[in-house]
């Protein structure tokens, strides 16, 4: 297994971009019988209310053309039952959208997931494996391999690939991570440099007057920055603004 992981790493590290790495990963996944790949990454996967945030990076291979717009613009990501399972999972899992299949997905699917269920059934991508990867500082990524479940033995075939597909997933994440900083969009909440600076000092216990003295600005200016940051973060007070800014990693140096 160690030799196989080394081989996967070598093949993926040869990609000079995330797109090249995805192409290499697709080739390895196809050798296992998968027809399509979905990779997503976000430095902050949940908002402050615990709802899924649209991933900052979504890479697709051999999926229908409208997949990206549906998942990123039409809200399918937020009602994707596989993603809801993945965010709370630490181990790879096999899933199927066939009602009679016995996977972790069947007890979880509800009416709210109907658009995603119908889409995947219409696309004949009803079976797959998903590898959740919880990263340092709260980042989150998944790699999902999809295939058509056209015969009774398909699900068992997928289960037999679980180990190798997991190795591919972690090798891809290791190779891709240095590139994600360049590819990832910023947090959905955008603060100015001065707003972040004021919140960072507030997080250290400084009052608005203390911050004004330290930054050599007027109290009114500092209060304006803090109030603006509160509004952008939807916070009721400065303490809540600091908590939410930390959650979204906006105060990272």
Protein described:
The chain is 48% helix and 13% strand. With 253 residues, it is an alpha+beta fold. It has 2 domains: 1-185, Transcription factor LuxR-like, autoinducer-binding domain (Beta-Lactamase); 193-248, Winged helix-like DNA-binding domain superfamily/Winged helix DNA-binding domain (Arc Repressor Mutant, subunit A), CATH 1.10.10. The chain has a 5-stranded antiparallel beta sheet with strand order 2-1-5-4-3, with helices on both faces. A hairpin with a 5-residue loop joins strand 4 and strand 5 (140-147). Helix 1 (2-13) packs across helix 2 (18-31) and helix 8 crosses helix 10 (219-233). The protein is elongated and about 70 Å long. The protein starts with a helix and ends in a 6-residue tail after the last helix.
CATH domain class of the largest domain: Alpha Beta
Rg, nearest Å: 21 Å
Mean pLDDT over the residues: 89
Name the poorly predicted regions.
Answer: none
Name given to the CATH architecture of the largest domain: 2-Layer Sandwich
Query: Which structural class do the helices and strands define?
Result: alpha+beta
**Oligomer designation:** single chain
- Helix coverage percent: 40-55%
Count of the domains: 2
Write the H/E string, N to C.
Answer: HHEEHHEHEEHHHHHH
Mass-distribution shape: elongated
The major β-sheet equals: 5 strands, antiparallel
CATH fold call of the largest domain:
Beta-Lactamase
Q: Which percent band covers the strand fraction? A: 5-15%
Query: Can you count the beta strands?
Result: 5
Query: Could you tell me how far the N terminus lies from the C terminus, measured between alpha carbons in angstroms?
Result: 38 Å
Domain HTH luxR-type: 184-249
GO biological process, one term: regulation of DNA-templated transcription
GO molecular function: DNA binding
Keywords: DNA-binding, Transcription, Transcription regulation
């Amino acid at each position: 297994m160690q030799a196989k992981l080394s081989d996967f790493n070598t093949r993926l590290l040869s990609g000079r971009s995330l797109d090249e790495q995805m192409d290499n990963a697709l080739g390895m996944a196809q050798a296992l019988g998968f027809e399509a790949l979905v990779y997503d990454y976000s430095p902050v996967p949940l908002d402050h209310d615990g709802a899924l945030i649209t991933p900052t990076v979504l890479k697709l291979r051999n999926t229908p053309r409208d997949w990206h717009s549906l998942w990123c613009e039409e809200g399918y990501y937020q009602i994707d039952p596989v993603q809801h399972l993945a965010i709370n999972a630490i181990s790879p899992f096999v899933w199927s959208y066939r009602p009679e299949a016995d996977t972790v997905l069947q007890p979880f699917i509800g009416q709210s997931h109907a658009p995603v269920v119908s889409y995947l059934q219409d696309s004949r991508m009803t079976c797959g494996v998903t590898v959740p990867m919880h990263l340092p500082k709260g980042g989150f990524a998944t790699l999902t391999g999809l295939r058509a479940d056209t015969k009774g033995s398909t699900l068992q075939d997928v289960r037999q690939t679980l180990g190798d597909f997991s190795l591919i997933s972690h090798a891809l994440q290791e190779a891709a991570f240095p590139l994600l900083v360049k590819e990832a969009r910023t947090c959905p909440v955008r603060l100015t440099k001065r707003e972040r600076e004021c919140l960072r000092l507030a997080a250290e216990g400084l009052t608005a007057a203390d911050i004004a003295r330290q930054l050599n600005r007027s109290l009114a200016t500092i209060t304006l920055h803090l109030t603006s940051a509160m509004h952008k973060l939807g916070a009721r007070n400065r303490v809540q603004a600091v908590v939410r800014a930390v959650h979204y990693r906006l105060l990272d140096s």
